[in-house]
Amino acid sequence: MADKLTVVLSQSQNKHPARRGLEEDIATQLLMEKDVVVSVIPHLYDINEKHTAMLFLRSIESDVVVLSWLYPRAAHWMLDRYQVKGHIGDVLLKDDEDDEGMEDTDDEGSGIGAADLPDRHIYTIDLRVSDRHEDYLEEIRRIAKESKDRSQAQKAASQLGFVSIDSVTSTNGEGKVRQELMAPTRRRWYPVIDFNRCTNCMECIDFCLFGVYGVDNIDRILVENPDNCKKGCPACSRVCPEQAIIFPEYRSPEIAGANLGGIGGLKIDLTKLFGGGDAVSTAASERDAELVKDGRDAVGWAVGIPKRQEGIESEPKDELDDLMDSLEDVEI
Predict the structure, then answer these.
(1) Whole-number mean pLDDT of the chain?
(2) Which SS3 state, helix, strand or coil, does residue 320 take?
(3) How many Å apart are CA 298 and CA 290, to the nearest integer?
């Protein structure tokens, strides 16, 4: 393990003064922290596998904190998709609503799980949680202490012959390296899979007609061609029975990766959002719109609609249905 904690700050897609000011305040203060090394990269969602920032992220072998303008679950599984893997680090600085979804802070879930996790932790922090740079500094200091304590315990165990500690090459992110990390990016749109929820049912690959999904050498689902995805379309996330597909830039929190357990004290049945008849109808319509744009024929319900929907009788909408419909029209 490295002696210093690596902190990576992912910049906002826009240059809003408040966001840029918060980023600058955090980075400036972190430069003065003796137990922290900080690097700044472009917006995490827009980086592809060949970008120097992604190569840098893959070079980090020790614990890392990633600050971004994304929900923590979305950021974690985005990194995992690019082979930046690790155990989910426990973050205390978060929205109160995240407490309703605490199961997503564990490595154990109902899904197939991430493969080949290295012995390190990845802490993802949402920069929308607070507008005070002091809050982020306090949390990073806590994480740095936690990381150092764990590292010292592992080294002590290693000296007793219990575990083996791999050597780590540190990167200080100064000068030329930092400039390379900030190479230009373009806006992107693609799905991210939460493997702690994904059960490998393959309904997404059956539903998507644009070649976005594929399987690896052990027949596990993956996002094979992310740039084949149609910008703004979240249709496949609606037919996923486990709500495992995330579109980090989508306007509705439940699709963007939030751990929603309720709004205003009202418990939400997520199956109405993702697995119910209305959601599937919406997904089919969204997919048809993209097919027509491509000069192809609309297929409606004829292709790739989950079989679990067959035989479901339509019911009159109630107040909860109206709330679900309204979530698509507003940002929360």
Answers:
(1) 82
(2) helix
(3) 9
- Report phi then psi at 18, rounded to 5: -65, -40
Note the pLDDT tens digit of each residue in 275-291.
Answer: 445 788 899 999 999 99
Distance between CA atoms of 76 and 102, rounded to whole angstroms? 15
pLDDT (tens digit per residue) in 234-264 = 999 999 999 999 999 999 999 999 986 444 4
Give the gyration radius of the chain's Cα atoms: 21
Contacts 24+ apart (CB under 8 A), 48-52: 48/185, 48/188, 49/82, 51/183, 51/185, 52/180, 52/181, 52/183
Q: Rounded to an integer, what distance in angstroms lies between the CA atom of residue 206 and that of residue 197?
A: 18
Distance CA(327)–CA(266), nearest Å, equals 14
Kindly state the tokens that stand for 74.
């979305």
Judged by DSSP in three states, 321 sits in: helix
Closest CA to 65 of 116, 112, 96, 27: 27
Q: What is the mean pLDDT of residues 35-63?
A: 94
* 127 neighbors 16 (Cβ within 8 angstroms): no
pLDDT (0 to 100) of residue 191:
97
Q: Are 284 and 300 in contact (CB under 8 A)?
A: yes
What's the pTM? Answer: 0.79
> Which range is least confidently modeled, 16-25, 66-75, 97-106, 193-202?
97-106
| Complete DSSP assignment for 210-260 | SS-EEE-TTS-EEE--GGGSPTT--HHHHH-TT--EE-TT-SSHHHHT---
Spatial separation of the C-alpha atoms in residues 34 and 36, rounded to whole Å: 6
